[in-house]
Each structure stands twice: as structure tokens, then as C-alpha cells.
Amino acid sequence: MRDHARPSSSHRRRRQELHRPLERGFNERKPELFEEVLAPHLVDHNVLIGSVDLRQRVNRVQTAFPGAEYRVGEHMLEGDSAAWR
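The structure corresponding to this sequence follows.
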């Protein structure tokens, strides 16, 4: 069951720390911003394109769709780990 309580200020701060570099890195075509939040060994396990480094996947998407923009829709934060889509 979901907890519908308002997120704490700490949670909101961590959410911004995650979202900002991901969204700006993609939308402003500055992949170096991803390094603020991604581990060097992060692999995207996408069924359609196979397991690739997330940075490679972003490059492929931007090449195929030059006007594409990205927004984090949902996320989970647990300790030092995060997941988003």
C-alpha cells in the first residue's frame, strides 16, 4: 500500500539531486551531467536493445530522435540507491 504522506524536505532534496542531472543531461545534450548520479558501471537491461551502458542508450535515442526530451516520471529512493522511469 502506498504512503500518501507528503515527502519530507530531505526526500524532496534527494529527488531534485537525482532528477536535475538526468533531465538536464538528456535535454541539454550534456551527458557529463549524468556522472553526478550514475555509477560508472550502470547497465540498462532493456529487452529490446539488449544490455548496454545507459550512456550508450541515451546516445542512441538522441541520434534516432534529435528533438527528444526526457522527464523523470516516477522514482524510488532507498538509502544510497535510486531507481526511476
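The first strand starts at residue 43 and ends at 46.
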